[in-house]
């Protein structure tokens, strides 16, 4: 990984144009609409059941697709017999690796090109055939009726042993996909300077996204024009991947995704199933709906890879961090997918430290490839680093919040030239968070509580973070249209993945145009009718789209002022846009209502186009956060009850307090899953298959597992350099420090350092009895 | 159907025990079909002593949100499939199709139930309420209003199920305690993690319903 911000959503994208310098608006000092807790503009649709998600699409003549996938983690396909399946009721088409339509279709895992149907299936769930039939039941029946002759091969699914000489080779060659190193300063000198040096190995599990709406799509051809409704975080990414796979011009592929039921990174791009759905639709000349089963979403549409992290750290008595050494390994899966991407980033960049060395090993195993998962790498790294910082604080007898405050960076040390941050709210997150959480008093209270003879022990813990991105950036284009009655259409390509994108963008447009958000109609996430946007992910949607929306509103206002100058016959530079009027600065009785502009009335509409300009040169825009947790451990049953959580987040300007807080709570809930409940389990010894392939066996936090009370404390720092709205990303940082904060609270409650996530009741009991035995 | 089952249906909805017994009965039907004469043409699913081959279509009469529907369905089709793909009421969502997430929650005679684990033939002539059925014309019902005002969702895909779970709870308990709300929602997963706002919405909905 280079020291430049080059992560998943930007790779391969060309640098776009920027707005004219004179278009760059002033930073808002005060706002009327932005920041207000407006309910979502699409709340009605979402709660009434009228919102149409891709899985809800019904088209005349539509039939259903289903996939057949390898049941083995490593196997060669020797032969496929579809004869029985073909004869079944309702079956309309079957496509396998032998079918003409699939032969030349390519798929890509990062840079590795693979055939659509590999004759060598490297993971359980790799595609083997696809079927279309009249009903979903018939399609599934037919897929099951296809007979496949597999040559079953030895497998490697335990990444911690996949580099052993005896391990099966996933790709024919070695299983070490990539190794990266980073260093600064002099590590030996750093450890020599330290008063305390600690070393520990931490592990996080493989976590599965499992968004509530399964992955899937509906495909329909009108002769050579294809429309795909995909449950997706980015319609333009769907369009380009499909066009590339099917060798079609972009103009022949329309991707639509007005609503989508969650993605968390796993829906940043489409899957092989999307291409197959298109091929089945072509072959049958019918629209085809292909929604993956819940089990398939466990097998083949991504995960947050497990990681093993050895960390060694040195600190002086006064709290100065002198050295950090970090070695991590993790699996990409069966194809290159960023198995250790960014796991070391927090070690490199979160705290001031002159001497740092990291290494990261990305390993191939016979399991489904990873996909970016909310803040790739960061929650894993935080699990190790934030527990280590706590352990150091204890050893030097310093408060863990104070130790963190001692090491706040003002520049990004891991980037070349150590450029400064536009704002570093980490200090305020920690200080004001600790204050609101009543950190000091809580420690005293808990010490009293735990001193009593009681099997319920309490603890509090803190975790801090930054997120490598959250700055957004080009490209993005937005069009705002003013109708002749003064109402507005906001046209943008971005998907609203549940974060409230539509709502906050309407607020930004309303703020700049001085209209009420209710008169703004939003058109979004359709490659045929809306403007280019990168997928919604990486906490970049708000800081990318919000400034672009503002630029579009400004360009619209400029067009209106030019029209007013013609109508009023004065110089345009002497005109001001005030409320719903344009007023001459020479004499404010000389003015015109915007809806009366003659050109607007003649044309019927006026548009403004906005482009996302570049980020500041030589500065870094990152969000920061600190989270605080209080919990109670039942030392007899091992159960953990989270009593309260506080998220203090510096994400720049808050555009909508309701959706902001909702993100914070949601991120904490997801972090609870990583810390306490979620763990993909592969049968390492016997079959190599996935053991927990559903929500019954793979546990998400439910209504009964979430913290009893959650609160959100926005740390709003003016950040005019970040972009013209001052908003930074939020969706990733909210889940980065959560699990680590829980682990630190567990330590206070039990005296046990839980190095392996998730901490299940069983793990609690195991560790406590180990401790008792000494 | 045993006496126990009947009791389960009329008092507490389907307890786990009752459900397992029901599956037992279903398996008996399929087994018996192997030795019986195949039917020609649709039959009424709720008539006694009729044995159906799995793939033959039967006529099923459903009462959804007060409207009557008559559909041809395979006996194995879930209520969820019939609602979404046959009748075209897609407010009820599919998250897992195996009784784990609650995205498909509907009310059957006022009790929340997973439509993915309910066969369409099983609920002939029962009162089925879906999220669409909570609307007053174009206006949101009280639970829906509370969800909108409390921002009780993110992606919104679990939301119809959550709304129905809360509606079911409030039909049974007028003023639920915080604990009752949490357990009332505990059969419904929200991967976006909007639980705290869902609880707040349930609380407000209870008040809205009374006012
Ligand atoms: S879809 Fe019915 S419980 Fe998940
Ligand atoms: S709102 Fe997305 S799953 Fe609940």
Mean pLDDT of chain A: 95
Output the structural class of chain A.
alpha+beta
Q: Which architecture of the largest domain in chain A would the CATH scheme give at its second level?
A: 2-Layer Sandwich
Helicity of chain B, as a percent range: 25-40%
Treating each run of at least 4 consecutive H or I residues as one helix, how many helices of chain A?
Answer: 19
CATH topology of chain B: Ubiquitin-like (UB roll)
How many E strands of chain B? 5
Q: Which ions and ligands are bound to the chains?
A: FE2/S2 (inorganic) cluster
CATH topology of the largest domain in chain A: Aldehyde Oxidoreductase, domain 4
Please name the fourth-level CATH homologous superfamily of chain B. Answer: Beta-grasp domain
The strand count of chain A comes to 28
Q: What is the first-to-last residue Cα distance of chain B?
A: 41 Å
Task: Show the largest interface.
Answer: A-B, 60 and 57 residues
Question: Helical region count of chain B?
Answer: 7
Our estimate of the beta-strand percent of chain A is 15-25%
- CATH superfamily of the largest domain in chain A, by name, is Aldehyde oxidase/xanthine dehydrogenase, molybdopterin binding domain
Largest sheet features of chain A: 7 strands, mixed
How do the strands of the widest beta sheet of chain A line up side by side?
A: 3-7-1-14-11-12-13
Structure overview:
The complex is a heterodimer of chains A (774) and B (211). A seven-stranded mixed β-sheet of chain A has the order 3-7-1-14-11-12-13, with helices on both faces. Chain A has a five-stranded mixed β-sheet with strand order 9-17-16-15-10, with helices on both faces. Chain A has a four-stranded mixed β-sheet with strand order 18-26-27-28, with helices on both faces. Residues 1-18 of chain A have low confidence and may be disordered. Chain A folds into three domains: 8-30 and 472-611, 2-Layer Sandwich (Aldehyde Oxidoreductase, domain 4), CATH 3.30.365.10; 54-153 and 210-299, Aldehyde oxidase/xanthine dehydrogenase, molybdopterin binding domain (Aldehyde Oxidoreductase, domain 4); 307-470 and 618-773, Aldehyde oxidase/xanthine dehydrogenase, molybdopterin binding domain (Aldehyde Oxidoreductase, domain 4), CATH 3.30.365. Chain A is α+β, with helices and mostly antiparallel strands and 774 residues long. In chain A, strand 11 (216-222) and strand 12 form a beta hairpin. The two termini of chain A are 43 Å apart. The relative contact order of chain A is 0.13. By secondary structure, chain B is α+β, with helices and mostly antiparallel strands. In chain B, helix 1 crosses helix 2 (16-33) and helix 4 (142-149) crosses helix 7. Chain B has helices spanning 3-10, 16-33, 79-87, 142-149, 159-172, 178-184, 195-210; strands at residues 58-64, 67-73, 105-108, 111-114, 127-129. The longest helix of chain B is centred in the N-terminal third of the chain and has 18 residues, at 16-33. Chain B has one domain (58-210): Ubiquitin-like (UB roll). Helix content of chain B is 38%, strand content 12%. A five-stranded mixed β-sheet of chain B has the order 2-1-5-3-4, with helices on both faces. In chain B, 49% of the residues are buried. Chain B contains seven helices and five strands, in the order H-H-E-E-H-E-E-E-H-H-H-H. At the A-B interface, helix 1 and helix 17 of A face helix 3, helix 4, helix 5 and helix 7 of B. The structure holds FE2/S2 (inorganic) cluster (2 copies).
């Amino acid at each position: 990984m280079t020291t430049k911000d080059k992560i998943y959503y930007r790779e391969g994208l060309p640098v776009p144009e920027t707005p004219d310098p004179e278009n760059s608006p002033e930073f808002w000092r005060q706002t009327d609409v932005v920041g207000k807790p407006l309910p979502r503009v699409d709340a009605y649709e979402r709660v009434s059941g009228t919102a149409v998600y891709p899985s809800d699409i019904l088209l005349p003549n539509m039939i259903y697709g289903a996939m057949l996938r390898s049941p083995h983690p490593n196997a060669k396909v020797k032969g496929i017999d579809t004869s029985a399946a073909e004869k079944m009721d309702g079956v309309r088409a079957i496509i396998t690796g032998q079918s003409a339509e699939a032969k030349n279709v390519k798929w890509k895992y990062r840079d590795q090109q693979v055939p659509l149907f590999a004759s060598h299936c490297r993971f359980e769930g790799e595609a083997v055939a696809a079927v279309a039939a009249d009903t979903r039941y018939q399609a599934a029946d037919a897929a099951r009726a296809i007979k496949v002759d597999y040559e079953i091969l030895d497998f490697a699914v335990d990444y911690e042993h996949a580099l052993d000489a005896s391990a099966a080779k996933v790709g024919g060659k070695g299983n070490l996909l990539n190794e990266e190193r980073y260093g600064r300063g002099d590590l030996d000198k750093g450890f020599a300077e330290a008063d305390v040096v600690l070393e520990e190995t931490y592990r996080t599990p493989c976590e599965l996204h499992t968004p509530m709406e399964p992955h899937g799509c509906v495909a329909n051809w009108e002769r050579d024009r294809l429309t795909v409704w995909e449950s997706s975080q980015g319609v333009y990414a769907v369009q380009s991947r499909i066009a590339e796979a099917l060798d079609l011009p972009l103009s022949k592929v329309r991707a639509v995704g007005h609503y989508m039921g969650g993605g968390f990174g796993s829906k940043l791009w489409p899957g092989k199933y999307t291409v197959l759905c298109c091929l089945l639709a072509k072959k049958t000349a019918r629209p085809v709906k292909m929604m993956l089963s819940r089990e398939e979403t466990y097998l083949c549409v991504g995960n947050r890879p497990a990681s093993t992290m050895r960390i060694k750290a040195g600190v002086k008595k006064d709290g100065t961090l002198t050295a950090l050494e970090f070695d991590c390994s993790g699996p990409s899966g069966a194809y290159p997918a960023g198995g250790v991407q960014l796991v070391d980033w927090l070690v490199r960049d979160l705290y001031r430290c002159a001497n740092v060395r990291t290494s990261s090993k990305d390993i191939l195993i016979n399991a489904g490839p990873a996909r970016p998962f909310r803040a790739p790498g960061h929650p894993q790294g935080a699990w190790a680093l934030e527990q280590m910082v706590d352990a150091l604080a204890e050893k030097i007898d310093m408060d863990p919040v104070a130790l963190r405050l001692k090491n706040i960076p003002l520049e990004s040390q891991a980037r070349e030239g150590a450029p400064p941050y536009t704002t570093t709210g980490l200090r305020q997150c920690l200080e004001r968070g600790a204050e609101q959480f009543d950190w000091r008093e809580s420690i005293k209270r808990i010490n009293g509580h735990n001193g009593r003879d009681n099997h319920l022990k309490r603890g509090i813990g803190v975790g801090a973070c930054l997120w490598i991105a959250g700055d957004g950036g080009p490209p993005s284009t937005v069009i705002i249209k003013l109708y002749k009655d003064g109402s507005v259409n906001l046209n943008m390509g971005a998907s609203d993945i549940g974060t409230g994108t539509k709502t906050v963008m309407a607020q930004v447009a309303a703020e700049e145009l001085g209209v009420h958000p209710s008169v703004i109609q939003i058109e979004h996430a359709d490659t045929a009718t809306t403007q280019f946007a990168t997928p919604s992910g990486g906490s970049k949607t708000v800081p990318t789209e919000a400034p672009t929306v503002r630029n579009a509103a400004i360009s619209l206002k400029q067009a209106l002022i030019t029209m007013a100058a013609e109508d009023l016959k004065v110089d345009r530079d002497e005109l001001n846009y005030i409320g719903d009027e344009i007023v001459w600065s020479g004499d404010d009785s000389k003015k015109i209502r915007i809806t009366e502009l003659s050109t607007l009335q003649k044309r019927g509409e006026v548009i403004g186009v906005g482009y996302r300009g570049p980020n500041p040169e030589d500065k870094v825009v990152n969000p920061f956060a600190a989270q605080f947790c209080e919990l109670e451990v039942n030392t007899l049953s091992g159960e953990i009850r989270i009593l309260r959580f506080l998220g203090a987040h510096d994400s720049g300007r808050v555009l909508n307090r309701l959706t902001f807080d909702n993100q914070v709570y949601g991120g904490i809930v997801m972090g609870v899953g990583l810390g306490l409940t979620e763990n993909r389990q592969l049968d390492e010894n016997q079959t190599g298959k996935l053991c927990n392939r559903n929500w019954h066996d793979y546990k998400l936090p439910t209504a009964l597992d979430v913290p009893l009370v959650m609160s959100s404390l926005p740390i709003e720092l003016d950040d005019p350099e970040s972009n013209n709205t001052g908003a930074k990303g939020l969706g990733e940082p909210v889940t980065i420090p959560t699990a680590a904060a829980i682990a630190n609270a567990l330590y206070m409650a039990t005296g046990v350092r839980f190095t392996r996530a998730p901490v299940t009741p069983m793990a609690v009991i195991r560790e406590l009895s180990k401790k008792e035995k000494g | 159907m045993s006496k126990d089952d009947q009791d389960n249906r009329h008092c507490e909805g389907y307890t786990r025990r009752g459900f397992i017994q029901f599956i037992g009965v279903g398996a008996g039907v399929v087994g018996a079909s192997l030795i019986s004469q195949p039917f020609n043409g649709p039959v009424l699913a709720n008539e006694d002593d009729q044995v159906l081959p799995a793939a033959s279509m039967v006529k099923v009469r459903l009462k959804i949100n007060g409207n009557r529907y008559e559909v041809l369905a395979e006996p194995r089709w879930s209520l969820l499939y019939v609602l979404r793909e046959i009748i075209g009421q897609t407010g009820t969502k599919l998250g897992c199709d195996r009784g784990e997430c609650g995205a498909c929650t509907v009310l059957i005679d006022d009790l929340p139930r997973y439509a993915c684990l309910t066969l369409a033939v099983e609920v002939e002539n029962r009162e089925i309420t879906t999220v669409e059925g909570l609307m007053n014309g174009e206006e949101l019902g009280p639970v829906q209003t509370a969800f909108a005002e409390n921002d009780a969702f993110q992606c919104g895909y679990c939301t119809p199920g959550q709304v129905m779970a809360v509606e079911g709870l409030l039909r049974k308990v007028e003023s639920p305690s915080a604990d009752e709300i949490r357990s009332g929602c505990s059969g419904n997963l929200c991967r976006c993690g909007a639980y705290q706002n869902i609880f707040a919405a349930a609380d407000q909905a209870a008040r809205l319903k009374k006012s």
